[in-house]
Write a structure and sequence with these properties.
Largest interface: A-B, 69 and 44 residues
Strand content of chain A: 15-25%
Radius of gyration of chain A: 21 Å
CATH topology of the largest domain in chain B: Phosphoribosyl-aminoimidazole Synthetase, Chain A, domain 2
CATH topology of the largest domain in chain A: Rossmann fold
CATH class of the largest domain in chain B: Alpha Beta
Helix content of chain B: 25-40%
Number of strands of chain B: 15
CATH class of the largest domain in chain A: Alpha Beta
CATH superfamily of the largest domain in chain A: HypD, alpha/beta domain 2
Shape of chain A: globular
Radius of gyration of chain B: 20 Å
Number of domains of chain B: 2
Largest sheet of chain B: 7 strands, mixed
Number of domains of chain A: 3
Strand content of chain B: 15-25%
Oligomer: heterodimer
Strand order of the largest sheet of chain A: 2-1-7-8-9
Order of helices and strands of chain B: HEEEEEHEHEEEHHEHEHEHEEE
Chain lengths: 378, 352
């Protein structure tokens, strides 16, 4: 049974959804954006949950016309690359039970998604947490592989179960990603328009806000850590554009009710004891040095990549669907294009028949736009 | 097992097999019905409202009055849930569909029951008592019926179909909204779906939440009588929730509807549970609520009539109809505006 839901939590949340305060912040944002003295001003958020809130509360319709809030590579499911999905599909086809988050099922691989493999008889379990995957392994003698995705926040949960002496039939296929390096990639992209970053509040509860100090020093681009309620986002944007206007790049923490400068040291220790960073492709973005989290050598016993010989070549003989060549998810996640620029969006590519990964996850830009209508002209 | 080529998504959007999304009350369901079950019946000679209208029921001209007919099959898991059971649902569902056509005095109901071998007699008796009680509440009785038993595993427990008939002087269609009309809701939204989902997933709340399942024909009768002719359209937001019902009304009426989210009544438990499970209360089913379109000058009169009834005490004016862009439903969140989309398939808790 899940925990008892506390109804009083909702009342607390409503404090950060006050329309009068939102109007004040929107006016401030308008004024500050005007004071920058050139247009447009472009900033990027790197978190699917930020886009969820912006879309759900209709915030795009109140953002200044001259402020371009770009959706960055903020959905960990969307940036999971084809070879990682292929590894999971091959394991599933070889009769191994795959436990994973529901969003991962529809992510397209070379030939098949996990959902396709499931409809062809593979044994896939949807779990809500890493701990649930371990429980699954304890209840069976089958090999259970936890296909783990997510940024720092969920990676810590995976690390915790790896450290808690899981059963011998449990292992992890890590598709975990690490956010700070991809911000470097975006900042260094030739012709990048990004003048400031809105950083994800939940990841920063683990890493601390100070982790962005070096990034700011190196790139002279301000970073503001923001929460996920509408007022959090608007206040974060006001602060970010102020820093752009003043030409004073620094890190500001606008989510102090959850985020500290140094973060959760205990969680960080667990994270880095279990994982190390390696370079790898992020779907649609680029090769991201240090962008992927893989298990350290001492946890080889729990690492599905070392426990099993995974031969993904057999999937490669199938040509990918021609539609995937038309898909522009990469440009969308890089902030160069919007879903409305894609000829497949809302037509061939729909939530129940996704072509690209951005339509798969509930945090994917295309999926969010499809659900809420990314049309600012309302 | 060898890897096979994944077929690309079908360009026509036609599915080879029926899936759960076709039963979710949204666009996929309407398209499937129009393309298969209703094909050939859509242009049949009917004086009044027939299948082509895809309304809550049909209306046939009898003398100078209208005979309204509606039918509904009921399956629900679990059969007994907080605030009701399948028997109450089967009676209220059909009584409410009649009421949504303006026929608030049902003349009688039929009841067909299919049972699975192994179904407990005590449960059947409990369901029957609930049906009887709900019929009394609605001022109606069951006038004929049918019973079948099927083998174990051939269906899930019990299926109940009810058909209702009623006479009325004036039919209220889904399609009658006009620019300027106000949209009213008769109470809090999402109670039924969240109460069931909580029971299915064994989620506990620190405050009670019950399904709103109830016959609301008396409530609707009061609203219609308060301002004769002023109610332009009605729909009960069952499967697919308020979002699907508003889309149907906007499309059939050829109007735009703008909803003011802050005036939509939502029970605090439904709000919390939706936040936590990643659900949208606008997509969640209701079984004792109605969306009512009213001419602007009479909106307050109808609202007062609704609030005077115990089942309408939380009624609110939640939106406005405009001629702007036909078929569109816009949500004003108080913080900005966005399109209110129809749900895709069954609402599932967000996982990642």
């Amino acid at each position: 049974m899940l925990e008892t839901l506390r109804v009083t939590d909702a009342a607390g949340q409503l404090r950060f959804r006050d329309p009068a305060k939102a109007r004040e912040l929107a006016q401030a944002l308008d004024r500050v954006t005007g004071e920058v003295g050139r247009a447009p001003v472009s900033v990027m958020h790197v978190c699917g949950s930020h886009e969820q809130s912006i879309a759900k509360f209709g915030l795009r319709s109140v953002l200044p016309k001259t402020l371009n809030v770009i959706m960055g590579p903020g959905c960990p499911v969307c940036v999971t690359d084809v070879p990682e999905v292929d590894e999971a599909v091959v394991l599933a086809q070889d009769g191994i039970r795959i436990a994973t988050y529901g969003d991962m099922l529809k992510v397209p691989g070379t030939a098949l998604s996990l959902a396709d493999a499931q409809s062809r008889g593979a044994n896939i379990d949807v779990v809500y947490s890493a701990a649930e995957a371990v429980e699954l392994a304890r209840d069976t003698t089958d090999e259970v592989v936890f296909f783990a995705s997510g940024f720092e926040t969920t990676a810590v949960a995976t690390a915790a179960v790896v450290l808690a002496d899981p059963p011998a039939n449990f292992s992890v296929l890590s598709a975990h990603k690490y956010i700070p390096p991809v911000m470097e990639i975006v900042a260094e992209m030739p012709g990048t328009k990004v003048e400031g970053f809105l950083a994800a509040g939940h990841a920063a509860t683990i890493t601390g806000a100070a982790i962005f100090d070096r990034f700011v020093e190196r790139h002279h681009i301000p970073v503001v850590v923001a929460g996920f309620e509408p007022l959090d986002i608007l206040a974060g944007l006001v602060k970010l554009v102020e820093l752009v206007r003043d030409g004073t790049p620094r890190v500001e923490n606008m989510y102090p009710r959850c985020v500290t400068p140094l973060g959760n040291r205990n969680a960080q220790q667990q994270l880095w004891r279990v994982f190390r960073t390696v370079g790898g492709m992020w779907r649609g973005i680029a090769h991201v040095p240090n962008g992927n989290l893989r298990l350290r050598d001492e946890f080889a016993r729990v690492d599905a990549r070392r426990k099993f010989r995974i031969d993904v070549q057999r999937l490669r003989n199938n040509a990918p669907s021609t539609l995937t060549q038309v898909c522009i998810c990469g440009d969308i996640m890089a902030g160069i294009a919007s879903p409305s620029h894609c000829s497949l969006f809302g037509k061939e590519c729909q939530p129940d028949t996704p072509v690209g990964a951005c339509m798969v996850s509930s945090e994917g830009t295309c999926r969010i736009w499809h659900q809420y209508g990314g049309h600012p002209d309302l | 097992m060898s890897a096979t080529t994944k077929p690309g998504p079908a360009l026509t959007g036609r599915d080879e097999i029926v899936t759960l999304k076709h039963g979710a009350g949204g666009r996929a369901m309407r398209t499937l019905i129009q393309e298969t079950l209703a094909a050939g019946f859509l242009t049949g000679p009917v004086e009044g409202i027939g299948l082509a209208a895809m309304d809550d029921g049909a209306a046939l001209k009898v003398g100078d009055r209208w005979l309204v007919v509606t039918t509904d099959s009921h399956v629900v898991h679990p059969v007994f849930f907080p605030g009701g059971d399948i028997g109450r649902l089967a009676i209220a569902g059909t009584v409410n569909d009649l009421a949504m056509m303006g026929a608030t005095e049902p003349a009688g109901l039929t009841c067909a029951v299919i049972l699975e071998e192994g179904f407990r007699r005590a449960d059947l008796e409990r369901i029957q008592r609930s049906m009887l009680e709900t019929c009394r509440e609605a001022g109606v009785t069951v006038i004929t019926g049918d019973t079948k038993v099927m083998g174990r595993g051939e269906l899930d427990g019990i299926v109940i179909n009810t058909t209702g008939v009623a006479l009325t002087d004036r039919v209220v269609p889904d399609s009658g909204l006009k620019a300027g009309d106000r949209i009213l809701v008769t109470g809090t939204i999402g109670d039924h779906g969240i109460a069931l989902m909580a029971r299915r997933h064994a989620i506990d709340f620190d405050a009670p939440l019950e399904s709103d399942v109830a016959p609301i024909n008396a409530l609707i009768a009061g609203a219609l009588a308060a301002a004769p002719g002023a109610v332009t359209a009605m729909k009960d937001p069952t499967r697919g929730g308020v979002a699907s019902a508003l889309h149907e009304m906007a499309e059939k009426s050829g109007v735009e509807i703008v909803i003011d989210e802050l005036s939509v009544p939502v029970h605090p438990v439904v709000r919390s549970a939706s936040e936590m499970l990643g659900l949208d209360p606008f997509h969640i089913a209701n079984e004792g609520k109605a969306l009512i379109g009213v001419r602007p000058d009479y909106a307050d009169t109808v609202l007062a009539a609704l609030r005077a009834h115990p089942r309408g005490s939380d009624a609110c004016i939640i939106g406005t109809v405009s001629a702007a862009r036909a078929g569109r439903v816009v949500l004003d969140t108080g913080l900005g505006r966005r399109l209110l989309a129809e749900p895709e398939g069954e609402p599932l808790p967000r996982i990642c």
